Structures are given as structure tokens and as C-alpha cells.
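Collaborator request, handled under Task 6.
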Amino acid sequence: MLGPIIETFIGGLLTGILYSLVALGFVLIFKASGVFNFAQGAMVLFAALSLARLSEVMPLYIALPLTIAIMVALAYAIEFLVLRPLINQEGIILFMATLGVANFLDGFGQTVWGSDIYKIDLGMPKNPIFIFESVFPGGLLIDPSELIAAVICAVLVVVLAIFFQVTRVGRALRAVADDHQAAQSVGIPLNQIWLMVWAVAGIVALVAGMMWGAKLGVQFSLALVALKALPVLILGGFTSIPGAIIGGLIIGAGEKLAEVILGPVLIRAFDLAGGGIENWFAYVLALMFLLVRPQGLFGEKIIERV
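C-alpha cells returned to the collaborator:
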């Protein structure tokens, strides 16, 4: 019995790293503008669609840098057309702007790339591997594609965490998040910071779209995967890059274990049909955190003085 539980736990951790990657895009935008970027899920979908359709007519090593250029150009367009006119506006106005961007990207992506289900072949191995066969009967089954994706995501997360925590750009980003006007008054170029952060968020969305697209296929329901980043952010904190990592691991492992362990208990106790726990467990856990620690595990506690 211990073997399947450990196997489920490992699979949950690998999925959790993918959740962390999506959540990282939200954190970067929130740290730069102080607003929840509702368009991050649409950016993940748009990036995956772009790569999938371009790779149909050209090799992947050409389609990938071209897609990166598309996401950087998209970041520039969002900053120039949407964010720049809204500098120093209320956070709710910026939030509504990202909501508009999300709906535009959903429709624009369908218009340009189509609405069918597309595949992204990254050349990763698909045959499962077994580890610890001498310890557990039959060993523990690991999906090598998920393992490779987790390693890639982990490396990207660590690089970005170091870059934004210790570099001059990272310090400028935190200053912009605290107060737009004060940051501008000391010479921090707000437009350049926003452009850089949105470009990085676009590249992160591309990597997330690649991994999730290779796993699930590129389809418009892929944008819904980004909603799972919301409980990740609530657990880890909206301003914490390490929090996005820890929150993703907790959500990924928690929902898998809840499906396997809690599911049978609820079925026997309440005569339920079973299943579906994985879909709501993360949100219930996030709700409990909101009641106890609304700033998250690593978020900064907001103190207002009057």
C-alpha cells in the first residue's frame, strides 16, 4: 500500500512544479504592477497555440525562437497599448484591463491559429520507467516526460528567482510594486520595467504552454489550467517567487493524495459516487488558508496605519 501512495506523491510533486510555473507568471506581474493578471492563462494558451501551429510548417528549433519573438512582441503591445495609458491608476482598473486582454487573446488566438486540438511534440520519451523495484513490489512508476518537464521548470524557476531577488532589476521591480509614483520620482523607468516583466511573463507562459500542451494537447480548455494557479498563489503568497514553488508542490501533491486516500473514505462514509476530489481540493485548501493566513505562507503581511 505504501508503494502506490509514494508513487502518487511523486506524481503530484511533478505536476505541482508545472503549477508553480504558471503561478510564477502571475507573481511577476503582481510584483511589477500590484494587480492580479487575469490574462496569464490566455497567454499560456496563446503561446502554446503559436508554437503548435508554427511547428507544423517548420522545425521545432525554428518555431521556438519565433514563438519567443511573438510573445515578446505581445508583451510590448500590451505595455504600449494597455498599461502605459493606465499608469498610476487604481489597481481595479488595471485588473479590468487584464481581463479585457484575456478575452482578446482567447478570441484572437482562435481567429489566427484555429480552435482544434493540436499536438506539441518535444521529443521527450513516453515509455514509463520503474524505480526502486528492489524496495517496492513492481517498483514505482514514473512518467519520464513529466520528470523532464519538472526539471526544466525547476531550472527556470530558480534562475528567475535569483534574477529578480538579487539583481538591480529585481530591486527596481519591488520599488515599482510598492509605489508607481515614488519609483518614477527616483528615476526608475516604469515603462521599461513593465515591458521587461511582461516579456519574461510571456516567456514563462510559453514554457508552461509547451509542457502542458505536450501533456494534455493544445486546446482552449488549457487556459483553465491557469486557474489552478490561484490556490497556489493563495498558499504561497502573491508576491513571493519561492512561495509559488512551495504552493505548487503542496497543491500538486495534496490533490493527488486526496483523490487516492480521501476519496475512498468519503465514498464509504457518505455513500457518494466518488471521483472529482482532485478538481475541488485545491480550492478548499486555499479557502482554509484565506481564513487563517490570507497573505499566504511567504506573503508580506499588510499593515495599514491610520
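The cover message to the collaborator said: "The longest helix spans residues 2-33. The chain has twelve helices and two strands. Please let us know whether this matches your experimental observations."
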